[in-house]
């Protein structure tokens, strides 16, 4: 089985693969009311960078979930090193091992597109409490893509579809979210002009050289610089 883009992120321990990195995450969290009573899920927590930041800076309860076993190992190692108490679960957003009405806020950063989006959104709605909020940062096409553009992106990322803003909003509304807002958005190139420098960590250089996985990261860079005017991201805030 060929390695995926997600395998490459896990192997090299890339902490902030989503646009804006931790800088954007901090901004989003500042807009929310987070108290000691808040229960927050980091959906697709990766190496645990975001979850660790939240736990250290907010009084809420934090849970992380990620499907990739290497990511879960890296997150556990981070939490142990930083002496942070975070519930961490290996599992899929498409079928989460949590009771219904478990969380006040669910944060998903560039993860949903790698899943069956309809199934994941249904699960997210299930585990959100009434009045809960989904904060979603996702790759978004700036316009309807031509067939070859779409094919190239899907092949690099191993996904089935690149959604436009309208399509993302429709997916969330169909899943039962009555209120969906776009709070921020840029193309790859326009984001570069914002000056929002990501606070990402360097990749793990202690792992053995793996040209195949390095190639996956290079393919990602190719997509960004080739299609940077027609692909970007949106921050969606969906509430129940």
UniProtKB/TrEMBL annotation:
Gene3D superfamilies from the UniProt entry: Vaccinia Virus protein VP39 (3.40.50.150)
Biological process (GO), any one? methylation
Methyltransferase type domain residues: 41-135
- Under Enzyme Commission nomenclature, its number is 2.1.-.-
Would I find Zinc among this entry's keywords? no
Q: This protein's superkingdom?
A: Bacteria
Keywords per UniProt: Methyltransferase, S-adenosyl-L-methionine, Transferase
SUPFAM superfamilies for the chain:
S-adenosyl-L-methionine-dependent methyltransferases (SSF53335)
* One Pfam family this sequence matches: Methyltransf_11
Q: Which InterPro entries match?
A: Erg6_SMT_methyltransf, Methyltransf_11, SAM-dependent_MTases_sf, UbiE/COQ5_MeTrFase_CS
Molecular-function annotations in GO: methyltransferase activity
Q: This protein is called what?
A: Class I SAM-dependent methyltransferase
Protein source organism: Niallia hominis
